[in-house]
Amino acid sequence: MEQRKRKAAKAVLTAAALSTLAASAQAVVYTEVGDAGQTIATAQAAGAFNGTTGLTQINGTIGTSTDADLYSFTLSSPTMLRFLASSTAGIDTSIFLFNSTGVALIANDDVSGTSFQGGFTTGLLAAGTYYFGVSLSGNEPINSAGQRLFTVDQPTTNVRGPASGVNPTTLATFDGQTFVAETGAYGIAISAVPEPTTNAALALGGLAATFALVRRVRRQQKA
Q1: Of 91, 116, 202, 222, which sits with the fewest C-beta atoms within 10 Å of its C-beta?
Q2: Please, which residues have CB within 8 angstroms of residue 209's CB and are 6 or more apart in sequence?
Q3: Domains in the chain: how many in total?
Protein backbone atom coordinates (compact mmCIF):
# COMPACT_ATOMS: atom_id res chain seq x y z
CA MET A 1 0.00 0.00 0.00
CA GLU A 2 2.81 2.41 0.91
CA GLN A 3 4.52 1.66 -2.40
CA ARG A 4 1.33 2.52 -4.27
CA LYS A 5 1.11 5.86 -2.44
CA ARG A 6 4.66 6.68 -3.47
CA LYS A 7 3.93 5.76 -7.07
CA ALA A 8 0.82 7.97 -7.11
CA ALA A 9 2.75 10.92 -5.64
CA LYS A 10 5.58 10.41 -8.13
CA ALA A 11 3.11 10.39 -11.02
CA VAL A 12 1.62 13.70 -9.87
CA LEU A 13 5.06 15.32 -9.53
CA THR A 14 6.13 14.03 -12.94
CA ALA A 15 2.98 15.44 -14.56
CA ALA A 16 3.56 18.82 -12.90
CA ALA A 17 7.20 18.90 -14.03
CA LEU A 18 6.25 18.04 -17.61
CA SER A 19 3.60 20.76 -17.58
CA THR A 20 6.15 23.32 -16.40
CA LEU A 21 8.65 22.25 -19.07
CA ALA A 22 5.97 22.48 -21.76
CA ALA A 23 5.04 26.00 -20.68
CA SER A 24 8.71 27.04 -20.68
CA ALA A 25 9.21 25.57 -24.14
CA GLN A 26 6.30 27.61 -25.47
CA ALA A 27 7.59 30.93 -24.10
CA VAL A 28 9.21 33.14 -26.74
CA VAL A 29 11.70 35.94 -26.07
CA TYR A 30 12.41 38.28 -28.97
CA THR A 31 15.59 40.35 -29.01
CA GLU A 32 15.94 43.40 -31.24
CA VAL A 33 18.14 42.78 -34.28
CA GLY A 34 20.28 45.81 -35.01
CA ASP A 35 17.96 48.79 -34.57
CA ALA A 36 14.21 48.36 -34.90
CA GLY A 37 12.68 51.14 -37.00
CA GLN A 38 10.09 53.63 -35.81
CA THR A 39 7.65 53.32 -38.72
CA ILE A 40 5.19 50.60 -39.69
CA ALA A 41 7.33 49.75 -42.71
CA THR A 42 10.51 49.30 -40.64
CA ALA A 43 9.05 47.55 -37.57
CA GLN A 44 10.60 44.24 -36.56
CA ALA A 45 8.34 41.17 -36.40
CA ALA A 46 8.58 39.94 -32.79
CA GLY A 47 6.35 36.86 -33.11
CA ALA A 48 2.91 35.62 -32.11
CA PHE A 49 0.89 35.37 -28.93
CA ASN A 50 -1.32 32.28 -28.95
CA GLY A 51 -3.85 32.36 -26.13
CA THR A 52 -1.62 32.12 -23.07
CA THR A 53 1.60 31.03 -24.81
CA GLY A 54 4.02 32.45 -27.35
CA LEU A 55 5.69 35.86 -27.18
CA THR A 56 6.41 36.76 -23.53
CA GLN A 57 9.32 39.20 -23.70
CA ILE A 58 10.82 41.79 -26.04
CA ASN A 59 14.38 42.95 -25.35
CA GLY A 60 15.95 45.94 -27.06
CA THR A 61 18.13 49.02 -26.71
CA ILE A 62 17.53 52.74 -26.97
CA GLY A 63 20.66 53.80 -28.86
CA THR A 64 20.20 57.59 -28.92
CA SER A 65 17.96 60.10 -27.17
CA THR A 66 15.78 60.33 -30.30
CA ASP A 67 15.61 56.57 -30.87
CA ALA A 68 12.27 54.73 -30.85
CA ASP A 69 11.68 51.04 -31.56
CA LEU A 70 8.60 49.52 -33.15
CA TYR A 71 7.69 45.81 -33.18
CA SER A 72 4.82 43.89 -34.73
CA PHE A 73 3.16 40.83 -33.20
CA THR A 74 0.05 38.79 -33.88
CA LEU A 75 -2.77 37.42 -31.75
CA SER A 76 -4.39 34.15 -32.77
CA SER A 77 -7.52 34.73 -30.68
CA PRO A 78 -9.16 37.57 -28.69
CA THR A 79 -6.91 38.31 -25.70
CA MET A 80 -6.33 40.91 -22.99
CA LEU A 81 -2.62 41.64 -22.64
CA ARG A 82 -0.44 43.16 -19.96
CA PHE A 83 2.73 45.05 -21.03
CA LEU A 84 5.34 46.12 -18.48
CA ALA A 85 8.67 47.77 -19.26
CA SER A 86 11.86 47.40 -17.25
CA SER A 87 15.41 48.70 -17.69
CA THR A 88 18.62 47.56 -16.06
CA ALA A 89 20.15 50.80 -17.39
CA GLY A 90 17.51 52.89 -15.61
CA ILE A 91 16.31 54.66 -18.76
CA ASP A 92 12.91 56.42 -18.62
CA THR A 93 10.67 54.59 -21.09
CA SER A 94 7.26 55.23 -22.60
CA ILE A 95 5.34 52.46 -24.34
CA PHE A 96 2.63 52.50 -27.02
CA LEU A 97 0.24 50.10 -28.76
CA PHE A 98 -1.22 50.48 -32.26
CA ASN A 99 -3.57 48.39 -34.40
CA SER A 100 -2.66 46.75 -37.71
CA THR A 101 -2.82 50.03 -39.65
CA GLY A 102 -0.96 52.12 -37.06
CA VAL A 103 -3.96 53.71 -35.33
CA ALA A 104 -3.21 54.62 -31.69
CA LEU A 105 -4.79 52.36 -29.04
CA ILE A 106 -3.15 52.78 -25.62
CA ALA A 107 -0.01 54.29 -24.09
CA ASN A 108 1.72 54.98 -20.77
CA ASP A 109 4.81 56.77 -19.53
CA ASP A 110 5.09 55.75 -15.86
CA VAL A 111 3.27 52.72 -14.48
CA SER A 112 3.28 54.31 -11.01
CA GLY A 113 4.44 57.41 -9.15
CA THR A 114 7.62 55.62 -8.11
CA SER A 115 8.55 54.14 -11.51
CA PHE A 116 10.06 55.52 -14.70
CA GLN A 117 8.87 52.47 -16.65
CA GLY A 118 5.72 52.27 -18.77
CA GLY A 119 3.02 49.66 -18.24
CA PHE A 120 -0.61 49.04 -19.14
CA THR A 121 -3.30 46.39 -19.50
CA THR A 122 -5.33 46.42 -22.69
CA GLY A 123 -9.00 45.74 -23.17
CA LEU A 124 -9.97 42.62 -25.09
CA LEU A 125 -7.97 42.73 -28.33
CA ALA A 126 -9.33 41.01 -31.42
CA ALA A 127 -7.21 38.43 -33.24
CA GLY A 128 -4.86 40.07 -35.73
CA THR A 129 -1.67 42.12 -36.07
CA TYR A 130 -0.58 44.87 -33.68
CA TYR A 131 2.39 47.21 -33.33
CA PHE A 132 4.17 47.95 -30.07
CA GLY A 133 6.46 50.95 -29.62
CA VAL A 134 9.13 51.93 -27.06
CA SER A 135 10.80 55.32 -26.70
CA LEU A 136 12.26 57.62 -24.09
CA SER A 137 9.75 59.67 -22.14
CA GLY A 138 8.60 62.64 -24.25
CA ASN A 139 9.47 61.10 -27.64
CA GLU A 140 5.91 60.74 -28.93
CA PRO A 141 4.29 59.00 -31.92
CA ILE A 142 3.06 61.45 -34.56
CA ASN A 143 1.13 61.31 -37.83
CA SER A 144 2.32 62.61 -41.20
CA ALA A 145 1.01 66.09 -40.27
CA GLY A 146 3.24 66.19 -37.18
CA GLN A 147 0.31 65.78 -34.74
CA ARG A 148 0.73 63.64 -31.64
CA LEU A 149 -1.45 60.54 -31.75
CA PHE A 150 -2.01 60.07 -28.01
CA THR A 151 -3.56 62.28 -25.34
CA VAL A 152 -1.31 64.35 -23.04
CA ASP A 153 0.63 62.38 -20.44
CA GLN A 154 0.05 64.67 -17.45
CA PRO A 155 0.25 63.25 -14.92
CA THR A 156 2.75 60.81 -16.41
CA THR A 157 0.94 57.90 -14.74
CA ASN A 158 -2.06 58.39 -17.06
CA VAL A 159 -2.97 55.40 -19.18
CA ARG A 160 -3.61 57.27 -22.41
CA GLY A 161 -5.86 56.71 -25.38
CA PRO A 162 -5.98 58.23 -28.89
CA ALA A 163 -5.90 62.01 -29.20
CA SER A 164 -8.99 63.60 -30.72
CA GLY A 165 -9.09 65.78 -33.83
CA VAL A 166 -5.95 64.43 -35.48
CA ASN A 167 -5.82 63.70 -39.22
CA PRO A 168 -4.63 61.25 -40.35
CA THR A 169 -5.01 58.95 -37.35
CA THR A 170 -2.17 56.61 -38.31
CA LEU A 171 1.46 56.50 -37.18
CA ALA A 172 4.10 58.11 -39.38
CA THR A 173 7.07 58.20 -36.99
CA PHE A 174 8.10 59.61 -33.56
CA ASP A 175 8.71 63.33 -33.01
CA GLY A 176 12.26 62.90 -31.64
CA GLN A 177 11.66 65.05 -28.57
CA THR A 178 12.45 63.80 -25.09
CA PHE A 179 12.68 64.97 -21.50
CA VAL A 180 15.91 63.02 -20.94
CA ALA A 181 19.04 62.15 -22.93
CA GLU A 182 19.63 58.51 -22.04
CA THR A 183 20.63 55.29 -23.74
CA GLY A 184 20.51 51.68 -22.64
CA ALA A 185 18.73 48.36 -22.66
CA TYR A 186 15.07 47.71 -21.89
CA GLY A 187 12.82 44.69 -21.56
CA ILE A 188 9.09 44.42 -22.17
CA ALA A 189 7.22 41.64 -20.35
CA ILE A 190 4.04 40.49 -22.11
CA SER A 191 1.39 38.31 -20.50
CA ALA A 192 -2.25 37.36 -21.01
CA VAL A 193 -4.83 38.63 -18.55
CA PRO A 194 -7.63 36.06 -18.06
CA GLU A 195 -11.17 37.40 -18.03
CA PRO A 196 -13.20 36.84 -14.82
CA THR A 197 -15.14 33.97 -16.42
CA THR A 198 -11.87 32.34 -17.42
CA ASN A 199 -10.52 32.67 -13.88
CA ALA A 200 -13.63 30.99 -12.51
CA ALA A 201 -13.37 28.19 -15.04
CA LEU A 202 -9.71 27.64 -14.18
CA ALA A 203 -10.50 27.53 -10.47
CA LEU A 204 -13.29 25.00 -10.97
CA GLY A 205 -11.07 22.94 -13.23
CA GLY A 206 -8.34 22.92 -10.59
CA LEU A 207 -10.79 21.79 -7.88
CA ALA A 208 -12.14 19.05 -10.12
CA ALA A 209 -8.63 17.80 -10.83
CA THR A 210 -7.80 17.82 -7.10
CA PHE A 211 -10.92 15.84 -6.19
CA ALA A 212 -10.21 13.35 -8.99
CA LEU A 213 -6.68 12.82 -7.67
CA VAL A 214 -7.92 12.31 -4.11
CA ARG A 215 -10.47 9.72 -5.28
CA ARG A 216 -7.83 7.90 -7.33
CA VAL A 217 -5.38 7.72 -4.42
CA ARG A 218 -8.12 6.48 -2.06
CA ARG A 219 -9.12 3.75 -4.51
CA GLN A 220 -5.49 2.68 -4.76
CA GLN A 221 -5.19 2.60 -0.96
CA LYS A 222 -8.26 0.35 -0.67
CA ALA A 223 -7.08 -2.05 -3.38
Answers
A1: 222
A2: none
A3: 1
